[in-house]
Fold this sequence. Notes:
Layout: E1 3-5, E2 10-16, E3 21-25, H1 36-42, E4 47-51, H2 68-81, E5 87-92, H3 94-105, E6 110-116, H4 124-140, H5 143-151, H6 157-162, H7 164-173, H8 181-193, E7 207-212, H9 220-229, E8 233-238, H10 245-248, H11 250-263
Helix pairs in contact: 2-3, 4-5, 4-8, 5-7
Amino acid sequence: MPILNTGRFDINYVDEGEGFPLILIHGLAGDHTAWLPQIAAWKEKYRVIAFDNPGSGDSSLVGEPVSTTDLADATLGLMEKLGIEKAHVVGRSMGGAIAQHMALKAPERLQSMALAASFARLDPVGAQVIKNLQQLLKWRKSWAEWAPHAVYLFVAPKFFNENEELMTKITALVSGEDRDMVSYDHLATACIEHEALDQLSNIKTPTLVMGGQYDPICSMTAQNWMMDKLPNATLEIFKDSSHFFLIEEPAKAMATMEAWFDKNAA
């Protein structure tokens, strides 16, 4: 896979398909592979760019404090290097926080924005969940021990109970010991400190806000806070799901985003 330097960071990315660009930004504990189903589905119609955020996958490690603004600069830098003037931007969890700063810094670069299980400010429960996961990793220094304490927070109870085999696979996926713990810690702090709520009224970019009804991390409280501030936003609630509604209700999630791209076509 190619790697581009955007100034502060080297970014590992995939660039597939042709057509109007889609930029896919993953969340805190993931990398670009979180988007593999979307890349496969959308590359026939769009130019799809997915990448590893700094501190994730094969991009640069993050050995010192970083902010969601810094990560937005890296993403805009990647767009610049790839010659992308404008794109639909889809941000998942932390990725949505990054997308907000992109819309504030360079609104002319975003055709639309879709925020999947994201936040402009974490509510107290969401912030505490991330703090707890940070502490656990520092105490145990093992992703394999961290994973079982995390994965049940990502899906609704019913989904967890009825999909034992899939939850085992997800647990194994996030148990890989090759991820950098220091980078994760800095990225987690960036999420906790992300505060864009009071700036959202300045974002005129058409925005799709998608939330899982049972999400304890990016709760419906956080979704409603965004809807109260964003002047040009549409809300879609996934009533049977939690933080991973892209996995829990994949057909609805894909249809919702594809209709959004069509509605806001260049």
